[in-house]
Amino acid sequence: MNNKFIKDDEINLRAVFQVYKKSWTLFLSCTLISIVICIAIGLLLPKWYISTAIISIGTSGGKLIEPIEGIVKVLESNINPPGLIHPDSLKEISFYYYGNSLVIEAEGYSPEEAYMLTKSSVDYLMKKHEKLYQDLLLPIKLEILKTDNDIRKVIEKLSLGANSNKAIRPDIIEGYINSLSVVKETKAILLNNISQYIPTKMEISPIKPKHPAGPKLLFIVFLSASLGLFIGSIIVFVIKERD
């Protein structure tokens, strides 16, 4: 192909630049028309909002009380577990995670819709993990109650011995004191075990978004300007080829 734009299979940049220079009004017109049309379309598109929440999954002895992959599967399930209110809106909710943090992000055509979709998943998970946390701690709490009862009994025996008119052998008193030390140490161990359980907690609570996440007008303007320049270029070079 031989013309003034291509010479010896090389693009003649000077000729191309001259075309752009002479036809700048056409390029500008195409760009402006494209921008106006795209912005008008963008303004007609419905606004959409995003509400985000981040939850730190609880741990037991350094391990998650429930695998995050399993949590995501349940939340994404079409079965719709009891407590969730979005059986028909799962495609509008995203679940992803990093470390032990779960991110829940919902889209809606109003701030209230986005907020309620996110809050539904958050409330379900927090209630589920609160029960799970209490179930894990229940055996330890029962042991602590038993230990407190043992401490009370030993103290009562020591008090009765101190108030008794009869002398108590030193070895018996020593036995009571040793028993008291053992049960107190047991209680300290149990309390330390409880501290190894970290409950699931909210890092970022869901809120009603104040501003729409889209349509993104700046992106639309950039895209439409690029499209206008491209269309203008095609028109100009087609016209020049026919001359």
Description of the structure:
With 243 residues, this protein is α+β, with helices and mostly antiparallel strands. The protein has helices at 13-22, 24-44, 68-76, 111-163, 170-195, 217-242; strands at residues 6-7, 10-11, 49-56, 59-60, 63-64, 93-98, 101-108, 197-198, 201-204. The strands form three sheets. Strands 6-7-3-9 form a four-stranded antiparallel sheet, with helices on one face. The longest helix is centred in the middle third of the chain and has 53 residues, at 111-163.
Please write out the topology.
Layout: E1 6-7, E2 10-11, H1 13-22, H2 24-44, E3 49-56, E4 59-60, E5 63-64, H3 68-76, E6 93-98, E7 101-108, H4 111-163, H5 170-195, E8 197-198, E9 201-204, H6 217-242
Antiparallel strand pairs: 1-2, 3-7, 3-9, 4-5, 4-8, 6-7
Helix pairs in contact: 2-6, 4-5
